[in-house]
């Protein structure tokens, strides 16, 4: 019974292994078409270099070939990966496609490969061996899924910038995924060669690459079973067509294409989206045995002592072309402070925090944040020093659950678990549980404990803002930067947020936040910095700021009864809606500029046109 | 989730239903007991009770589709004529390997399991090297109808072919052309990314060396190329006596046309790939004088060939090419082998195929040699007045 389907089953296994080489990079958001090239180079090298089955026995010969092939595939992927890892999306696809094509042409013109007529290889692979290899590969990706490494890759796929600011070294992770892909492609190439008896460079051409990609995508590129389902689907289509008696010829590829279209239309997430995704939500009680074996807490970060300098900016400036977004800012933030950064739209607030968190290098001036010099330090290093932030426009990992988002936030404070998970070491389980409980605590802290299992994209706007805060908190930062955290929150929620920020500060955290809700800023902060036209125009306690005539003039606005008297061009009319906020600093009033009344004329003058 | 699942399931089911509507006869005819495959009488009077299952693996889609389609037409014409003849009925199952080694291997496996008496094909030599061992191991005879690469029949004693190897056709072509045109130095052009044309090139190179003709330049191109002007200009510079080309018909037509446009009027010598009526149909006047060494003499006036040309034209409204002729001859030879012992089981067929001798076919008097390779006259043709004529 099985023997009758041995060929089909073998090809399902081979197709799935090849699809895994695409899955390995798709899961990290990379679109590569170079895998056919890796497989080709690996297959030809292994078939040439490996000893003959007659000398050492079939299985040792195949194993040697597999080792050679995977090594060659991995090396080839490093060689290709190092210069191309900064490419994204379709550019990476084109570069890797170019590589695969170059490999094909080179192999075609080599004497030792047999050129177009191919290289004869003995058939050693059996259906059992193919499925064993598939099981090993699938196991690898299964165990990777819920490890710190696997989550980091998914985070990169969902939002690279956010992943960077959570302390993930994106370059290294992307290269690691790429090398995994190369090794798996190499494995496929060797197994394929030792099954089909004759390999020619045309077996690893563009069509083969697209075939592998389609298999991975149809199966689903976000769950480890995807490639197997995809390969089963792709391999069974011709079988089923033969079984039902579709006439051989063009009609078959046509129907296969149509079926593919239907699957992609109705199941955009691939066949695995039929499998309900289990989301882990740790019960707060700790579950069975939880009381007896309390999970170890994650390593807590030692915050700088109160009063120590956390951020020190000297003459910091940023220009975009001729536009001076930030001009000569001198600022010092000390541990334990809660600094509010306010100013009209376009005042340079976000640019300033982007520089502090390392996302944007300054044009001039110097900045030291938690001991790291800002400028050439990569974002993930700044994050590792203890800076964590949220973004003005939510940058969540949309297809991950709320809890998984927060788990990624805990990247820096949790331990790597992938290799230990491969070996089923209990310590990995403990570490994972500790990370989970830590993440759940962070979620509960912002009031999202109930929504842990929901996809980030399904949350309401306000909940998304809170999830960002939870994710930033999970990194146990020393400096927390919040970019308009209260946007989209009603006054009750904003008051709760204010409460949360103050309680965090009591725990030793230094907080810098941008907010348009001036009332909330004045209520929450120990110090307020006012920015206008990229310059600090005032800095002081909330009471000082509320009374500062320059601030009232420039930002909060006065109860001026002659708005026409002010110049639009000089920007002083920027935000006239805050008058009530200035008058009653204790009231929580949202002065979102979008709520601006009919009174003002939009400021369309280019900033710093001089 | 549930909604999308049921929608998808319904859609999938709909496609499958649609697929089954397009079906002809079901392929799973079951295994005929070997007792039914033995009959009474010999030769034309042989009568076999059961249907003789014959599998054919052709590349009907994918890169080699144009050859597979020609072969399918040749096979179907032969099957129709054999059905009329009666006595032995064939259950010819033509399957498509999509020019994909995985499909080829799977199909051979299935045909072996389905109990066919013999497998015809596959279209490409590379596919034959990959799939023929399966039949060899299972003891199912294979008749290759277009495999020209060396070594295919060495796979085992169940592997036969009726297609002459390049080595059997090309030396004769070069010898005749050298004599006719007094060749001294030539330029060789070939597509190096195709197994068929590459092995053709190797045969050309060996034959040219044997004849003492100098190869002043060897130029390679890709089978997908259609613009040869730069390469031809390069060839022109060494002022050759002839240009020897190993290419498939898709490349041959633009190559010949562009050579004439550039004023290259030396003879162009091609191999099996050129033996296609499309050469004259599409290249027109430019094809005049092109020399084509081939396994099938389309201008032959032997009765089998004359009838075949007329029948094919009547059926398809076009002239057959070499692939169709070899496919047609292939099934006719299988019929000959079945009738020889009046038995169609695998072992009888294997034995009878090996003993085929001087069978009149569209390819001429046909025999199988001790290496299970084809023996029949090759031909050197030249295009004259829009048709192939034998170059004497």
From TrEMBL, chain A:
Q: How does it sit in the membrane?
A: Multi-pass membrane protein
Q: Does the keyword Hydrolase apply?
A: no
Annotated InterPro entries: AAA+_ATPase, ABC_AA/LPS_Transport, ABC_transp_permease, ABC_transporter-like_ATP-bd, ABC_transporter-like_CS, BCA_ABC_TP_C, LivM-like, P-loop_NTPase
- GO terms assigned for molecular function: ATP binding; ATP hydrolysis activity; branched-chain amino acid transmembrane transporter activity
User: Where do the ABC transporter domain residues begin and end?
Assistant: 311-558
Q: What is this protein called?
A: Amino acid/amide ABC transporter membrane protein 2, HAAT family (TC 3.A.1.4.-)/amino acid/amide ABC transporter ATP-binding protein 1, HAAT family (TC 3.A.1.4.-)
Record's keyword terms, sorted: ATP-binding, Cell membrane, Membrane, Nucleotide-binding, Transmembrane, Transmembrane helix, Transport
Which species is listed as the source?
A: Geodermatophilus obscurus
Gene3D superfamilies named among the record's database cross-references = P-loop containing nucleotide triphosphate hydrolases
Q: Give its localization.
A: Cell membrane
What PROSITE patterns does the record tag this protein with? ABC_TRANSPORTER_1, ABC_TRANSPORTER_2
Keyword Membrane in annotation: yes
Q: Name one GO cellular component term.
A: plasma membrane
What ranges does the record list as Low complexity composition bias? 281-298
Membrane-spanning intervals of the chain: 6-26, 62-82, 89-108, 120-142, 175-196, 208-233, 254-275
From TrEMBL, chain B:
Q: What keywords does the record list, in alphabetical order?
A: Amino-acid transport, Signal, Transport
InterPro entries named in the record: BCAA_transport (IPR051010), Leu-bd (IPR028081), Leu_Ile_Val-bd (IPR000709), Peripla_BP_I (IPR028082)
The keyword DNA damage appears for this protein: no
Give an example GO biological process: amino acid transport
Question: Which Pfam families does UniProt cross-reference here?
Answer: Peripla_BP_6
Q: Which domain of life is it from?
A: Bacteria
Residue span(s) of domain Leucine-binding protein = 51-386
Q: Which CDD domains match?
A: PBP1_ABC_HAAT-like
Per the record, the similarity remark reads: Belongs to the leucine-binding protein family.
What name is this protein filed under?
Amino acid/amide ABC transporter substrate-binding protein, HAAT family (TC 3.A.1.4.-)
Q: Which organism is it from?
A: Geodermatophilus obscurus
Taxonomic path: Bacteria, Bacillati, Actinomycetota, Actinomycetes, Geodermatophilales
């Amino acid at each position: 019974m099985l023997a009758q389907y041995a060929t089909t089953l073998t090809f399902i296994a081979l197709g799935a292994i090849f699809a895994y080489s695409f899955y390995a990079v798709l899961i990290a958001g990379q679109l590569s078409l170079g895998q056919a090239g890796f497989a080709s180079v690996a297959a030809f090298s292994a078939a040439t270099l490996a000893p003959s089955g007659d000398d050492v026995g079939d299985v040792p010969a195949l194993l040697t070939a597999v080792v050679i092939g995977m090594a060659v595939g991995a090396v080839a992927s490093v060689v290709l990966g190092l210069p191309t890892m900064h490419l994204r999306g379709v550019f990476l696809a084109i570069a890797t496609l170019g590589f695969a094509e170059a490999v094909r042409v080179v192999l075609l013109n080599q004497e030792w490969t047999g050129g177009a007529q191919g290289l004869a290889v003995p058939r050693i692979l059996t259906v059992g061996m193919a499925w064993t290899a598939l099981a090993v590969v699938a196991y690898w990706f299964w165990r990777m899924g819920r490890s710190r490494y696997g989550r980091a890759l998914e985070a990169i796929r969902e939002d690279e910038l956010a992943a960077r600011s959570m302390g993930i070294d994106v370059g290294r992770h992307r290269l690691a995924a790429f090398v995994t892909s190369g090794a798996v492609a190499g494995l496929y190439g060797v197994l394929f060669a030792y099954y089909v008896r004759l390999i020619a460079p045309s077996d690893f051409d563009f069509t083969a690459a697209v075939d592998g990609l389609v298999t991975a995508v149809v199966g689903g590129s976000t769950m480890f079973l995807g490639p197997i389902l995809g390969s089963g689907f792709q391999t069974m289509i011709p079988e089923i067509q033969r079984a039902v008696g579709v006439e051989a010829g063009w009609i078959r590829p046509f129907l296969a294409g149509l079926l593919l279209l239907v699957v992609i239309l109705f199941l955009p997430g691939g066949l695995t989206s039929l499998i309900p995704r289990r989301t882990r939500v740790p019960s707060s009680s700790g579950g069975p045995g939880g009381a007896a074996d309390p999970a170890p807490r994650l390593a807590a970060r030692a915050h700088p002592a109160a009063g120590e300098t956390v951020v020190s900016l000297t003459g910091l400036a940023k220009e975009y072309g001729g536009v001076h977004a930030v001009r000569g800012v001198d600022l010092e933030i000390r541990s334990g402070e809660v600094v509010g950064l306010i100013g009209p739209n376009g005042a340079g607030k976000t640019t300033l925090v982007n520089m502090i968190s390392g996302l944007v290098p300054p044009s001039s001036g110097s900045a030291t944040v938690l001991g790291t010099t800002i400028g050439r330090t990569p974002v993930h290093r700044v994050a590792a020093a203890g800076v964590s932030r949220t973004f003005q426009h939510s940058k969540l990992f949309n297809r991950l659950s709320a809890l998984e988002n927060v788990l990624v936030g805990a990247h820096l404070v949790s331990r790597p678990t992938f290799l230990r998970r491969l070996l089923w070491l209990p310590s990995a389980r403990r570490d994972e549980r500790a990370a989970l409980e830590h993440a759940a605590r962070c979620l509960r802290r912002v009031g999202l404990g109930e929504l842990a299992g929901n996809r980030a994209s399904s949350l309401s706007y306000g909940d998304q803002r809170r999830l960002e805060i939870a994710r930033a908190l999970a990194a146990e930062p020393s400096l927390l930067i919040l970019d308009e955290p209260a946007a989209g929150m009603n006054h009750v929620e904003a008051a709760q947020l204010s409460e949360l920020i103050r309680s965090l500060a009591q725990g030793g955290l230094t907080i810098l936040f941008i907010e348009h809700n001036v009332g909330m800023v004045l209520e929450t902060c120990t110090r307020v910095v006012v920015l206008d036209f990229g310059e600090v125009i005032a800095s002081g306690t909330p009471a000082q700021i509320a009374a500062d005539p320059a601030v009232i003039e420039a930002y909060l606005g006065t109860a001026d009864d002659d708005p026409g008297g002010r110049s639009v061009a000089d920007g002083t009319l920027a935000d006239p809606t805050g008058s009530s906020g200035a008058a009653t600093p204790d009231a929580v009033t949202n002065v979102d500029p979008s709520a601006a009344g009919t009174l003002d004329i939009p400021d369309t003058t280019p900033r710093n046109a001089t | 989730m549930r909604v999308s699942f049921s929608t998808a399931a319904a859609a999938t089911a709909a496609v499958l239903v649609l697929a089954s509507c397009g079906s002809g006869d079901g392929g799973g005819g079951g295994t005929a007991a070997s007792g039914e495959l033995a009959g009474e009488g010999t030769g034309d009077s042989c009568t076999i009770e059961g249907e003789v299952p014959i599998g054919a693996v052709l590349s009907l889609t994918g890169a080699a589709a144009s050859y597979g389609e020609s072969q399918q037409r040749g096979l179907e014409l032969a099957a129709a004529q054999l059905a009329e003849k009666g006595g032995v009925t064939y259950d010819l199952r033509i399957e498509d390997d999509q020019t994909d080694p995985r499909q080829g291997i799977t199909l051979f496996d299935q045909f072996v399991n389905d109990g066919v008496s013999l497998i015809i094909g596959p279209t490409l030599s590379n596919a034959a090297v990959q799939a023929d061992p399966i039949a060899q191991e299972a003891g199912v005879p294979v008749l290759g109808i277009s495999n020209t690469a060396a070594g295919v029949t060495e796979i085992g004693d169940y592997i036969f072919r009726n297609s002459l190897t390049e080595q059997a056709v090309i030396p004769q072509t070069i010898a005749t052309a050298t004599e006719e045109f007094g060749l001294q130095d030539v330029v060789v052009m070939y597509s190096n990314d195709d197994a068929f044309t590459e092995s053709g090139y190797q045969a050309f190179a060996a034959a040219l060396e044997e004849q003492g003709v100098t190869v002043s330049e060897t130029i390679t191109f890709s089978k997908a190329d259609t613009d040869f002007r730069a390469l031809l200009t390069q060839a022109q510079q060494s002022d050759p006596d002839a240009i020897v080309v190993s290419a498939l018909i898709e490349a041959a037509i633009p190559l010949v046309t562009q050579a004439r446009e550039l004023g290259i009027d030396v003879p162009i010598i091609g191999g099996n790939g050129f033996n296609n009526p499309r050469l004259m149909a599409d290249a027109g006047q430019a094809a005049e004088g092109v020399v084509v060494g081939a396994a099938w003499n389309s201008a032959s006036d032997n009765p089998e060939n004359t009838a075949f040309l007329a029948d094919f034209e009547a059926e398809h409204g076009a002239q057959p090419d070499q692939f169709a002729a070899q496919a047609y001859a292939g099934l006719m030879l299988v019929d000959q082998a079945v009738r020889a012992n009046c038995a169609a089981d695998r072992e009888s067929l294997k034995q009878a195929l090996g003993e085929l001798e001087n069978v009149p076919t569209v390819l001429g008097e046909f025999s199988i040699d001790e290496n299970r390779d084809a023996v029949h006259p090759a031909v050197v043709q030249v295009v004259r007045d829009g048709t192939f004529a034998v170059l004497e």
